[in-house]
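Reviewer 2 asked us to include a model.

Predict the structure of this chain.
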Amino acid sequence: MELNFYKQSATPNRINKSGYLSEVGTVNGVIIKETENSLTPDFIMMTSDIVLNSNYFFCSATSRYYFITSHDFLSGGRIVLHSRVDVLMTFRNEILSSTAWVEVSKDTSDVDDYNMLHNDLPFRQDYTIKGKSSTDTIFRGGSTDLSVVLIMK
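Predicted model (structure tokens):
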């Protein structure tokens, strides 16, 4: 198995990290350690500067991006790389092309009835508002009254 290693400088909650990746190198002969959890796999490989100077990698066998969470050194010059799937980067195309109902709130005091904290109007220009809840106010121009809206890309 082959892993492509990177130095990644984006915040973990950024969906597309492509512009924040600096390629460090590729390592071949990697073995994935059997695990019960596919979101936090361990990889065994020979120790190299590529691995030690990276914080992120892509596995072509699983087609997933991973954060490096830690590593352990083994005998014989081997290393175990502990990782966590970067779900946002792995599924970025699906996420960015999706359509969804989005509920936002302008008030954080109503703890029981909000799902998303409204800080900076999370709408981009290329979205079209397709519908709204019949009882709620919809985002209009400079208004800060927000509610349930259907956003279409």
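Residues 92-96 form the longest helix (5 residues). The chain has a mean pLDDT of 76. We have added this to the supplementary material.
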